[in-house]
């Protein structure tokens, strides 16, 4: 098992900070940072969390730092359906419902969908049932020919967007499971090229006899103290032109139900 010093040094290197940089940010001496990293000083739980805060360590990994230093984990990880997360779950549901008639969904750090609004459901109607077995993974759903990939006109662009986002995730916080998913679905090939776009990259979907042009935004919790909330994100899709808006705002795909994926 890694020591607290080894873990802190690894995170510091990952953030490309010197011991002095970290010390100044955490308002401690560079000597103290050095003593902690080399195991010659045992940090308090408060010091572990102070250094983790300056290193922007995710809550899941802050627990690992605390355990390595001999302290109990500080942050709970509850399922989104837990009673303690009722207010947060209701907030996510309100965001999803308020975005109708446009599609929106919530997913976790490994892109497993945890909740959708009703506007997503028509697009899943012809997806291979194998891809809809929980946990439903958004990357697989979007890139597998048995899923939504066959509907996406500019699949290379969409794959490039996914690739960029997952790379940023891995740069922010290494994760073996996410890295394996990247290797499976997003490893670039010689034919891949950066997407070409003036303002933002649109996703063009051929559905219902039309080509729908969509762009998306991401919403996260601002001050989470639970691992689940720290890792959940809501992706909301918007029509990029009047024709796409009319499809969703008219009879269009219809809204058939709401709730968890």
From TrEMBL:
This is Transcriptional regulator with XRE-family HTH domain. Pfam families: HTH_31, MLTR_LBD. GO terms for molecular function: DNA binding. InterPro entries: Cro/C1-type_HTH, Lambda_DNA-bd_dom_sf, MLTR_LBD. Residues 8-62 form the HTH cro/C1-type domain. It comes from Actinomadura coerulea.
């Amino acid at each position: 098992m890694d020591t607290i010093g080894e873990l802190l040094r690894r995170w510091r290197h990952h953030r490309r900070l010197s011991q002095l940089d970290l010390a100044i940010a955490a308002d401690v001496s560079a000597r103290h940072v050095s003593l902690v990293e080399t195991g010659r000083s045992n940090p308090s739980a408060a010091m572990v969390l102070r250094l983790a805060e300056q290193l922007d360590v995710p809550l899941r990994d802050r627990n690992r730092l605390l355990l390595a230093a001999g302290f109990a984990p500080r942050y709970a990880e509850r399922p989104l359906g837990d009673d303690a997360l009722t207010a947060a779950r209701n907030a996510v549901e309100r965001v999803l419902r308020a975005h109708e008639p446009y599609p929106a969904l919530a997913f976790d750090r490994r892109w497993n969908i945890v909740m959708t609004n009703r506007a997503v459901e028509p697009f899943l109607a012809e997806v291979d049932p194998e891809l809809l077995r929980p946990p439903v993974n958004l990357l697989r759903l979007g890139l597998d020919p048995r899923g939504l990939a066959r509907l996406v006109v500019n699949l290379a662009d969409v794959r490039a967007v996914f690739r960029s986002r997952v790379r940023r995730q891995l740069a922010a916080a290494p994760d073996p499971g996410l890295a394996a998913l990247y290797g499976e679905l997003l490893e670039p090939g010689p034919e891949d090229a950066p997407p070409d776009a003036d303002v933002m990259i649109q996703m063009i979907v051929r559905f219902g006899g039309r080509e729908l042009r969509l762009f998306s935004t991401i919403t996260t919790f601002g001050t989470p103290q639970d691992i689940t909330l720290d890792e959940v994100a809501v992706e909301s899709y918007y029509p990029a032109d009047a024709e796409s808006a009319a499809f969703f705002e008219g009879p269009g795909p219809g809204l058939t139900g709401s709730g968890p994926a």
